[in-house]
Structure formats: structure tokens, C-alpha cells
Amino acid sequence: MAASQHESEHPKKAFGWAARDSTGFLSPFNFSRRETGEKDVTLKILYCGICHTDLHLSRNDFGVSIYPLVPGHEIVGEVTEVGSKVEKFKIGDKVGVGTMVDSCRSCQSCVDNLESYCPKKIPTYGFKNVDGTTTYGGFSDTMVAHEDFVILIPHGLPLDAAAPLLCAGITVYSPLRYFGLDKPGLHLAVVGLGGLGHLAVKFAKAFGAKVTVVSTSPHKKKEALENLGADSFVISTDQDQMQGVIGTMDGIIDTISADHPLLHLLGMLKSHGKLVLVGAVAKLELPVFPLIMGRKIVAGSSVGGLKETQEMIDFAAEHNVKAEIEVIPVDYINTAMDRLHKADVKYRFVIDIGNTLKSTS
What we know:
It is a single chain. The strands form four sheets. Strands 3, 4, 5, 8, 9, 16 and 17 form a seven-stranded mixed β-sheet that branches. The chain has a six-stranded parallel β-sheet with strand order 12-11-10-13-14-15. Helix 4 packs across helix 5. Strand 14, helix 9 and strand 15 form a beta-alpha-beta unit. The protein is α/β, with parallel strands linked by helices. The chain has twelve helices and 17 strands. The two termini are about 35 Å apart. Residues about 1-10 have low confidence and may be disordered.
């Protein structure tokens, strides 16, 4: 396992915003990054997206948070220093760091370029390393990461809109590819139209699919059809509308992160159809009979590995797939977190780190 993002014997000063306790309130925080190792890339952070994981970990909703906690794993910036043995990057490159900064490199998942499923992966922030130090995320001015966990941002892809692709984007891109839902002409449904859902619509359309958005919110219809390019929109609480799409879907990407019924979603699938869950919901009731009678599949999926993340970013640049964002200054973070908790964002907050993060040291 390579060196991870943590303090070292020769740390460099860093500055960011951190939560100190389960209130989740973030405030300025001075800390240290390790010096640039021979295979490391150091970047000046320019933008960092805010995702629901940042909210949950800041408030210790999962019971595993380590304080002080510097969130952020949708990081985009500019390379300012490279180690002596770095081969993939040079100073001035625009790059990103996503949800992890290391893995064991030897398990089957790592061998298969699926580091996200490595049992020893090291998340970008809030994780204890084997030496007892803590990883810190992108709500900060700098980042140091091994080059194997850094993504090159292609020219032409706006850096602010690229940031959410490093988590939300790869979360929906990966299952579309893995489960064969990336073929032109398929009819796919996207359940939920938020940070994940809007990107699922965009990637599915870029793959050439016919896309139906399924939502409980009628007011999102115009946005789905006119701005995101969906082909149709269904209100999941309207029995007539749901009856009209029974047996019509080749696949469904379900982005809902709260408890919700699966029976009507399974009914939407054709025989051999696939329902893929990407929302982090703790428990759902699974109706078995519809699976058996239609040879249908219910699966889960996390983010892809580093190779696939680079593939996703390149695809996004080629097909003009960008996150819909609200750019905010760093001192708006706590308000943004409260709004995110209320689902009051369309569709992703991105912090303008480069222009608004000022050190207090």
C-alpha cells in the first residue's frame, strides 16, 4: 500500500474548514499535509463539490466520524508539484481527486481496476491510516495524493462543473457500463432527480438511451424534459401513469437514499431487466416473486475504480456531460449544508476554493 493522504514526519501547512463535533458546524482549521513523495502529486485546490456523504459524516450520521473532520471528495485543482518518479502528470495540469486516495493494490478488486471495492481502500477524508494519522478532504487549500489516485481533467471541461463528476458522476456511470445499460436504443428509467439522478439522465442520454424520469415531484417535470433532455416523466404516486409504463424498461437506476417501495419499480422492468440501487439507503423490502417470474435483477453499485473514473471524465468531456451546479464561497458552507439537508439545491453545490478560501494563519 502506498503512502496515503496524511500528516508525515515533514508536514506542510494546510488550511481548510472542518467539523469539530456531531453538530456538523464547519469552521476554519489549520492542519498539515505530508510532503510530496516521489510518486505523489500536490495540487492547489480550485473547486470542491459537496455531496450527501459530506453532510452525513460531518454530523456523524453513520457513527464513524473522526473529528476534526475536513470533508470533500469531489476535488479539482491545478498541479503545483510532482514527485521525482511521477510519470502521468506535470506542473500546471488540471486534475481531480475523488472518493479514495489509496488501496491495497493486491486484492482481486485492485487487480481488476476496481479499487472502490478493495476492503483496505483509504477514503479521501475522515479515515484512520495504519499509522494512526487521519485523512483530510477537499474543503481545503491543497491536496497531496499518489499519482495512481489522481484523475486528469480534459481540456474543455469546466473545472467547477467537473468536480461533482468525481463522485456523483462515476456513481451513475459505473453501473450503466457494468450492467450493460450503455447500449443505444435501450429504454431506461432514472428514479429520483437530484445530484445523482440528473447526471444519470445525462449519461444515459449520451449513451443513446430513451430515458424516463420517475419522481414524486410534479414540479420537476419541466426541468427533466426541457433542461436535462429526458424523453418522458412519470409521477410515481400516480397509479395511472405507473400502470402505463409496466414492462417497458430495460433497466432502472434508482438514486433514492430514503426508504421507498420497490414493487412498482420491478413492475416497470421488462423480463431480464435490471434495477440498480445507487442511493445509500440502509434497508429496503425486496419483493421476491416479481424477480422470479421475470428473471429480473436487483443490484447495488458504488463508484467505479480509477481507470473507469478517467474513462468517465473523458467521456463527459467528449459528450458535454456536466453537472448542474450552484457555485458558492467557502463561508457559505454551513448554509449550503443546511440547504442540502432540505434538498434545496439544483443539483450540486460546488465551493469556489481557489477564490474564496483565505487562511487565518
